[in-house]
Design brief:
single chain; mainly beta; three-stranded antiparallel β-sheet; 11 strands; Alkylphosphonate utilization protein; YjdM_C
């Protein structure tokens, strides 16, 4: 039994070969057999509405967010400039006026 890599998009273990391509039956994602680690390195981070985010973009917070360990709140509609994308659960590094350096989740912002 050959071991095929899981889908890089949805991590499904039910991938199969179709010619020179690997296919995921759950999300219909197709990728090259040679692309193995290259697809993970080129991870795309999207905002709450599906727009692709890039380093240096400006975003707007779509929900009031409590700051852990503080009584501060990042209000809905707060505009954040010059974001930096990082790996991890909180995938946006930024600096918010009046609060300072923070990490945000991309699911709580929209591209401005």
């Amino acid at each position: 039994m050959s071991t095929l890599p899981p889908c890089p998009q949805c991590d499904s273990e039910y991938t199969y070969e179709d010619g020179d391509m690997l296919v995921c039956p759950e999300c219909a994602h197709e990728w090259s057999k040679d692309a193995g680690d290259a697809t993970e390195a080129a991870k795309v981070i999207k905002d709450a509405f599906g727009n692709e985010l890039k380093d240096g973009d400006a975003v707007t917070v779509i929900k009031d967010l409590k700051v852990k360990g503080s009584s501060l709140v990042v209000k809905q509609g707060t505009k954040v400039k010059s974001i930096r994308l990082v790996d991890g659960d909180h995938d946006i590094d930024c600096k918010i006026d009046g609060i300072g350096a923070m990490q945000l989740k991309s699911e709580f912002v929209k591209k401005a």
